[in-house]
């Protein structure tokens, strides 16, 4: 597909961490993005969505909207399932009425985390947190619907401009504390939102459909990510590793959720840059 001149409705495109980067990437590619927040259009209201699609007549519908508060989801299960499990297949069905390509994002948290080699698209899902189960149900709903022009991208550990995220929080805390303690026994793939947006367009250019894993190259722990961010920002703050058992959270996270990028690389011919290089760009942007 040629992206240029295409009308792209982006749920989450006005206020979401990934959505804002997607809006910029589609703009840069010469498309006509229609970025939305929940105030513009509620994805839980099919009539509102249908009216919007009727008005915009999109070539592409991108769902970067979701319930993303992993711990709060344990207390707000209905909300998490409505947004992450019920809404995606409804959106895809409405996109299908307009023959629009449907792009949806999912998460590494659909995996159990008991592997020690990167998860491929062939690995079976086995989520255990409310967030993970709701996102996995969303994927299943889309696969069951079976709309052929559907692209599902699982990404992980997002950071980037436009909305608060783990890296930003660590850098803000480093300004007012001498020491940060961060878990070092959860391993994953940090993903820079602008890179994930650019790579999404590369998949669309190849007419990719089905499930793809997408992250920056490499892997680290939350401690590794925080210490590198603090180091790159030149902040005087010690970052001390702690086990997950010393930082209990309401929702349990997978101990290992690195995503295998082989299918993406084979399909697009592009290898995502290392997370450290992407982080350096982000930190430079924050400091300027
Ligand atoms: N963040 C991560 O580390 C991470 C990791 C792996 C996968 N993912 C996945 O990547 C995708 C994007 O995540 P993100 O972190 O960029 O999300 P985010 O920053 O939390 O943004 C969520 C977006 O969803 C919108 N939204 C919420 N409820 C809505 C509703 N009822 N109707 C319409 N829009 C609604 C929000 O709009 P308002 O601002 O108006 O509420 C916001 O724009 C999600 O599918 C997420 O599961 C994220």
UniProtKB/TrEMBL annotation:
Catalytic activity, reaction form: dTDP-beta-L-rhamnose + NADP(+) = dTDP-4-dehydro-beta-L-rhamnose + NADPH + H(+)
Broadest EC class assigned to this enzyme: oxidoreductase
The keyword NADP belongs to this UniProt entry's keyword annotation: yes
One Pfam assignment: RmlD_sub_bind
Annotated InterPro entries: dTDP_dehydrorham_reduct (IPR005913), NAD(P)-bd_dom_sf (IPR036291), RmlD-like-bd (IPR029903)
Ranges where the RmlD-like substrate binding domain occurs: 10-286
E.C. designation(s): 1.1.1.133
Pathway participation: Carbohydrate biosynthesis; dTDP-L-rhamnose biosynthesis
Keywords (A to Z) from UniProt: NADP, Oxidoreductase
Source domain of life: Bacteria
Record-linked NCBIfam families: rmlD (TIGR01214)
Function in brief: Catalyzes the reduction of dTDP-6-deoxy-L-lyxo-4-hexulose to yield dTDP-L-rhamnose.
Family label: Belongs to the dTDP-4-dehydrorhamnose reductase family.
UniProt name for this protein: dTDP-4-dehydrorhamnose reductase
Species in which this protein is naturally found: Pseudodesulfovibrio portus
Encoding gene per record: rfbD
């Amino acid at each position: 597909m040629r992206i240029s001149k295409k009308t792209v409705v982006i749920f989450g495109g006005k206020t979401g961490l990934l959505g804002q980067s997607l809006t910029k990437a589609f703009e840069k590619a010469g498309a006509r993005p229609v970025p939305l927040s929940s105030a513009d259009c509620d994805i839980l209201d099919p009539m509102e969505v249908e009216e919007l699609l009727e008005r915009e007549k999109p070539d592409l519908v991108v769902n970067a909207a979701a319930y993303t508060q992993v711990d709060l989801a344990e207390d707000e299960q209905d909300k998490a399932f409505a947004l992450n499990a019920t809404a995606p297949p409804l959106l895809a069905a409405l996109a299908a009425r307009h023959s629009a390509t449907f792009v949806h994002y999912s998460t590494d948290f659909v995996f159990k985390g008991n592997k020690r080699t990167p998860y491929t698209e062939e690995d079976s899902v086995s989520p255990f947190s409310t967030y993970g189960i709701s996102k996995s149900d969303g994927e299943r709903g889309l696969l069951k619907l079976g709309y052929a022009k559907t692209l599902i991208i699982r990404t992980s550990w997002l950071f980037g401009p436009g909305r608060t995220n783990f890296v930003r929080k660590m850098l803000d805390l480093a300004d007012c504390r001498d020491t940060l303690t961060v878990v070092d026994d959860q391993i994953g793939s940090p993903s820079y939102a602008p890179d994930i947006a650019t790579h999404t367009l590369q998949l669309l250019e190849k007419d990719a459909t089905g499930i793809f894993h997408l992250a920056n190259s490499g892997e680290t722990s939350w401690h590794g990510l925080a210490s590198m961010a603090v180091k790159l920002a030149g902040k005087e703050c010690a970052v001390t590793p702690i086990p997950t058992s010393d930082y209990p959270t309401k929702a349990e996270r997978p101990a290992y959720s690195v995503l295998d990028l082989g299918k993406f690389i084979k399909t697009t011919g592009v290898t995502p840059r290392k997370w450290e290089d992407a982080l350096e760009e982000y930190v430079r942007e924050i400091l300027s």
